[in-house]
Amino acid sequence: MLFDTHLHTKFSADSDMLLTDAINSAEKQNIGLIITEHLDFDYPGEDLFEFDPIKYMNEYLPYRSDKLYLGVEVGMQEHTLIPSKKFIEKAPFDQIICSIHLLDGEDLYYKSCYKQDKQTTYINYLSAMAKLIAQHDFANILGHIDYICRYAPYSPADITLDEFGEAVDIVWKTVLDKGIVPELNTRRFDNINNIKLLLKLYERYAALGGKYVSIGSDAHTKENVGFKIHEAADFMEQYNLKPVYFVNRQMQLCKS
């Protein structure tokens, strides 16, 4: 069974999805789920990307099963490393994704974040990712390497090896050194050009010795649960990359 290893429900500030709706959607697709609610300390703006881990566990543990596990997505900033680590120690999370949503304290969602040219901004982004994932060594998964491509105003917005191969290599070598698994996020799988360019990054990861990936839809609504994860797994098979998920912080192979 494939697992959608990245999705958000009502405990995340940017989602209203009910857990039962996510479960029903997954059952129709015969996939498993890892719930990964947002934790981003010191997030700019009015939204509070934090939640009570004890309340989360108390409400969701009755639903935990061999098809549903409970995790968290930790937003990485250097100055929030210690409080993030203390947070995950408060509850028995099955899986920890660590991701970048901010660059130099600014939200990558907004155009105001992009004050410099693409080359400078993307190098800063990838360099920050490599540095922060090395520091956040409690991570099981590095979230969406291509997150910036969703919102950057550059054309094209993709991360390509021709432009950023050296910086991408540093990210991949860091996760390999730390024993962290990269995520293949299907959020941008609605465009074949996005897919082709993104897959080149994972082909490079495999060439450097990578063996495992997690596959996540990053769903915030029931309609997007499981989005394109079967197609993503088929693509990963080309590079002998095996889809995985985590239970009690231990890696598990998805079984066909």
UniProtKB/TrEMBL annotation:
Reactions the enzyme catalyzes: L-histidinol phosphate + H2O = L-histidinol + phosphate
Enzyme Commission numbers on file: 3.1.3.15
Gene Ontology BP terms: L-histidine biosynthetic process
Pathway membership, UniProt: Amino-acid biosynthesis; L-histidine biosynthesis; L-histidine from 5-phospho-alpha-D-ribose 1-diphosphate: step 8/9
The protein's name in its UniProt record: Histidinol-phosphatase
Coiled coil ranges: none
Gene3D superfamilies: Metal-dependent hydrolases (3.20.20.140)
UniProt keywords, alphabetically: Amino-acid biosynthesis, Histidine biosynthesis, Hydrolase
Family: Belongs to the PHP hydrolase family. HisK subfamily.
First-tier enzyme category under EC: hydrolase
Annotated Pfam families: PHP (PF02811)
The organism's place on the tree of life at top rank: Bacteria
Domain annotation PHP: ranges: 4-186
Molecular function per GO: histidinol-phosphatase activity
